[in-house]
Every structure is written in C-alpha cells, then in structure tokens.
Design goal:
mainly beta, 3 helices, globular, 528 residues
C-alpha cells in the first residue's frame, strides 16, 4: 500500500508539471490511472469481502519521433476490484505488460508490430479494444499493415493472437479489410459513398481430451471464417450506413449446445437540418456471438463488438436495469428524434425536445417456451431541456421501460415508469449547483424507487456531490454516496464513499455484472 501511494504521488507530480517530455528529437507522453477501493463489511446488502482492498492501475507511455512511434502499457491489479473477472485469472495480483507496440506511419502505408487495437466495419466481425471500466482488453499481439492507394482504396491486414484477460489466448486471428471510395474514383460532388469488405479467420486447435466433445457439437475443424460487406452514404443532410455479416459454424456462447452458422444485419439512416435531428437504427443478430477462445468464459472472451442499441442513460434509476444483448438471436432497433429551438435575441435561452424508442424481440421460435416471438426490451422515453437564462436550466425526463428477465425464454416482463427532474443554477461564473430528483414507479420486480442528487461545482478545480437511492418496497435499502473531485491541469482526483447496489455496469452498450459493496474509493487520472 505504501509503495502504491508513493508511485501515485510521483506520477501525478510529473503529469502536473509537464504537458510532455522532450526526449532527444522526439517527445514522450503518457497517462496514469488508478481506481482503488477499501471495502467494508455491510450486512444490510450481504457484503462481506474476504479481501478488503482492491486496486486497478494503468500506466501508459508513448514515444514519437517523426513518423516513428512506440509505446507500452503496464497494468497492476493489487488485487483487482470486485466484479472484474480478470481478478479471478492467474497473474491478476501482479504487475504485467498489457500492451506494447512500435509503428512506422508514412504517407501511404503504416506498419505496426505489437498489440493491435482496431476493428473491421462496425465491429460485427472483429473488434479489439480496451475498456478499463469493464475490465476488457482484447488487443491482438501481432502485426498490422495498412496501404492506401491515394484516396481511392485502403487495404488493411493483420495477424496475431488476441489477449484474454492477463494472458494471450491459444487462438490466432488473421484478416483483411478493404475500403473503396467511389466518391473519389468518380469525382462526385456533395456525395460521400464508400464500400467496405472484411474477412477474418480464427484458428484454434480442438483438443480431443477437452471436457467438451467439439465434434459432437458440430465442430470438425480448427478454422472459423467470418466476412462482412458494408456501405456508407452521405448526401447533404441525409446519411445511410449498412452492413451484412456472416460466419461459419461456431459456438455463439460458451455454453452453447451445438455449432451453428451466424449472420447479422445492421442499418442506420438519419437526417439533420436547422436544429432537427432524426435517426433510425435496425439490427438483426442470429448466433453472431464470437468467442476469442472456445475453452474460456467471461465478458472479455469476445472477438467482435455487439453493443446494446438503446439509449445510454446517466441518471441512476433510468439505468437501473440496462438491456443485455441476446447474441443467440434478436431483432429490433431504435428511433431517435431531437429538435432544438433557440431564442434569436438571447442565445442563453433555448428549448431542446428529445424522444427515443428502442425495441427488441427474440428472433427464432426455439428461443421461447411458447414458440412465439417474445419481447426482450422496450424503452419509450422523452425529455425536455430548457435554458431559461444565464443562470437557470431545467431538464425533465420520462422513461417507460419493459424488459424480460429470462431473455425471452419465458413469457414474463417487468415494467418501470421513471420520472426525472434535473435543475441547474449558476451562481456566478465559477460556482454552480445542480440537483436531481428521480422516481421509479413499478408494481413488479423490486417495486418503487426514489433517488436524489445534489452537486456543487467550484470551477475550475473543485466539485462536491451527495446522492441517495432508496428502494421503498422490497429491500427498503438506502444506497448512499458522497464525494468530491479536484482537477488541476491534466490531473483529476476523486474521493468518494458509499453503498453500491449489485447490478450491471455498462460502457458503450456492453455490460459486466458488479456485486453489491460498501467502501471508500479513490480514483486518479493523469496525463502528460
């Protein structure tokens, strides 16, 4: 603990004093992040941790010299925070090198050797990325090359093995992506039109001595092939994006009982003009989950990117039960409409009207007991934001949510009606106060909830907050929190204390489960 504190203090001091460090003819930049929690016993929520200390730490350094760049990232889990699956993996309580690379980028080509973070298309076939909030790092250790034929054609190829938590998987991926700009080829005016195609191969030896009989499940070879094709079209205020993806026989989840083919369709269309924005997204998934390794489980064991296409909330009660994507089969999408009405005489006065609808159903008969298509998720919501003058701003939100706790297998849903009032008052150019009042009305699941938050900002350095979330019916439990943050230059320190409800934590539509806990948290982010 002492060494951790000294390391944090030293790194924050460097980051505060320097925007970057000149090193020879190049320069060194970097970042440091720590999220540390001291856990307390709390019988009210059944939290009795065996280890009262958890700390996730990340140090990233990058060096740039002209067209050459290199970097490393070291992670330390001392041990990992509760709810992070990598905390249960070998080596999770030690320092380890989580990524490294060297890269040369010229006008027409790039070569990178090391850990690759990239995606093909919208990620339906392949995406390697890091998300520290979820505890995911699927960087591919290998080589990637990119060549551009002017502005007309771009070709990308990669080969390597993906990371799975604290180690690399015993599977190899190789693939290519081609992007063709018809706009530049045919010299189109006011039109953006591109075509994209992708191919990926996952190679993993099928161990005959494994606990699962892969041949009996329908897997006869070590190779899985995935492919996709997409289009991107923009004209004036209108845009359209579409992609189709397919894959060979595979196990879509770690507990799947047979290998099946997979496919996916994604389409998005939108229009914007003079304060009006309208967009619609449609997606069909049919056994499109793709594992990094057939021998492993967990949220991080995913080779592609299939996020929830729903509204992502920041309000506590609206985000109480977020939607979990059904990779075995789902059909649906969302529609989003917003309109901004500004006062021509006073730019500090405006209205923003916003509405959103997301709706998803099961895809096939065998996904439900009844053989009928079952509702997975429905969220109808609207909010109105009003800036009254330089000092006052209000936001009112309503959300009707209906969700299926059995992923559509049983004909059973829960309904929540959520009301939110959000008021901000700017005292002067440095001080402001914001308050939230939320209520969740439901006759099912856990019943009614009430929540509130008060936040005081003292620019440019300080912010203080207190919040509470209370279940009125089933558990009659308070989930209280309070804390403050301090920001200077590129360093931010936040200290908080409170009780946290068990549930899903989401980032970009991808979620992980976090157990309930009570504790004191210190989070530091710093860059130079």
């Amino acid at each position: 603990m002492k060494h951790l504190v000294l390391m944090i203090a030293g790194l924050c001091g460097i980051a505060t004093a320097n925007a970057q460090i000149n090193l020879g003819k190049g320069y060194l930049s970097g970042s440091f992040e720590t999220n540390t929690i001291y856990y307390l016993n709390d019988s009210k929520i059944g939290s009795e941790p065996t280890d009262h200390f958890g700390s996730n730490n990340y140090l990233k350094l990058d060096y740039t010299l002209g067209r050459f760049s290199a970097g490393i990232q070291a992670d330390a889990y001392l041990p990992a925070l509760l709810g992070y699956e990598l905390g249960e993996r070998p080596g999770a309580n030690h320092f380890y090198l989580s990524s490294k690379y060297i890269q040369w980028a010229d006008t027409n080509f790039e070569v990178l050797v090391g850990d690759i973070f990239d995606q093909f298309g919208n990620g339906l076939v392949f995406r390697s990325y890091e998300d520290r909030q979820l505890g995911i790092n699927t960087g591919v250790e290998g080589i990637r090359g990119i060549y551009r034929f002017g502005n007309y054609v771009s070709v990308k190829g990669l080969y390597g093995r993906p990371r799975l938590y604290t180690k690399y998987a015993d599977s190899w991926v190789r693939g290519a992506n081609v992007n063709v700009s018809l706009t530049d080829i045919f010299a189109m005016d006011n039109v953006l039109l591109t075509l994209e195609g992708s191919y990926l191969n996952r190679h993993e030896a099928l161990d005959k001595d494994a606990m699962r009989d892969f041949a009996a499940l329908g897997l006869t070879g070590p190779d899985l092939n995935l492919y996709s094709g997409g289009i991107n079209f923009n004209w004036k205020n209108l845009f359209f994006r579409g992609e189709y993806a397919g894959k060979g026989k595979d196990l879509p989840t770690a507990v799947a009982e047979k290998a099946v083919n997979g496919r996916a369709v994604l389409g998005e269309i939108g229009y914007s003009r003079k304060g009006l924005g309208v967009s619609g997204t449609f997606r069909m998934l049919d056994n499109m989950g793709t594992l990094i390794s057939l021998y492993e489980t967990g949220t991080g064991n995913v080779l592609n990117y299939l996020p929830a296409i729903t509204r992502q909330y920041t309000y506590m009660l609206a985000n109480l039960n977020p939607y979990q994507v059904n990779v075995e089969g789902e059909l649906g999408g969302q529609i989003d409409v917003s309109y901004r009405l500004r006062n021509r005489e006073d730019r500090y006065r405006y209205w923003i009207f916003h509405g959103n609808l997301s709706n998803f159903y099961t895809l096939r008969r065998e996904q439900s007991q009844t053989g009928n298509r079952e509702l997975l998720w429905l969220d109808m919501n609207f909010d109105v934001e009003r800036q009254w003058n330089r000092k006052w701003k209000t936001t009112f939100l309503f959300s009707f949510q209906e969700w299926n706790p059995h992923h559509g297998f049983k004909h059973r849903t829960y309904v929540s009606n959520i009301f939110v009032a959000d008021v901000t008052y700017k005292i002067d150019h440095k001080k402001s106060i914001r308050a939230e009042l939320q209520y969740l009305l439901s006759d099912e699941y856990e019943g009614d909830w009430v929540a509130g938050l008060v936040e005081f900002g003292l620019a440019p350095h300080w912010s203080f907050y207190i919040s509470d979330m209370y279940n009125k019916d089933l558990t009659k439990t308070n989930y209280y929190n309070g804390g403050f943050s301090y920001t200077k230059n590129r360093t931010r320190i936040q200290i908080s204390y409170g009780r946290n409800r068990a549930g899903y934590i989401c980032s970009g539509g991808v979620c992980r489960y976090s157990p309930a806990y009570t504790g004191c948290n210190i989070a530091i982010t710093s860059s130079f």
